[in-house]
Amino acid sequence: MLKKIGSRLKEQKGFTLIELLAVIVILGIIAAIAIPAIGNVISKSDDKAKVQEALLIIDAAKMFVADNHPSGATTTLTKDTTTADAAETATLPTNGLTDYLDRVDDSSFSVTVTKTATGYTYAISGHAANEVGEAADIPDSASEDDLLGYN
Question: For 21-62, how does the pLDDT look when each residue is reduced to its tens digit (9 = 90+)?
Fold first, then answer.
């Protein structure tokens, strides 16, 4: 009789309550570790995307300068307008970087192009620089080197 009961118990299939609880605890521990890590990855990728967008805007400003050769000391470019020294205003296009930016919808930035003895320097301020500045301790205006250093 005892042998019959013992063999029936061995034939039963399924998980015990303890086994199920152990699996649930293990899954909870994995979730507690994984969720914050995934949040950090998403945040960092968002910051890097903003930096890349800022670099794309600076590259558009470089193309503008290569096409138009501003002679003034400082030229400010936005997506829709260009401002420069008074003597140069008539020779530069006034539509800004519109022709050079295909996939940048944001227009709350400005690029300051400064002519130096060795070439030009570029600094972006506005949306992209502010977002990067918060993430990378860069001030409101970020130079190309600051942006490259962030990545």
Answer: 999 999 999 999 999 899 888 888 888 888 888 888 888 888
Q: Give the count of beta carbons closer than 10 Å to the beta carbon of residue 15.
A: 10
DSSP string, 100-115: G-SS-----EEEEEEE
Residue 70, φ and ψ in degrees, nearest 5: -65, 135
Listed residue (73, 80, 54, 65) closest to 141, CA to CA: 54
Structure tokens at 96: 């800004």
CA 46 to CA 60: how far, in whole Å? Answer: 21
- Is the pTM higher than 0.85? The answer reads no
Identify the CA nearest to 111 among candidates 74, 61, 66.
61
Residue type, 96: G
CB count within 10 Å of CB 82 equals 21
Tokens of 19: 């086994």
Helix (H, G, I), strand (E, B) or coil at 40: helix
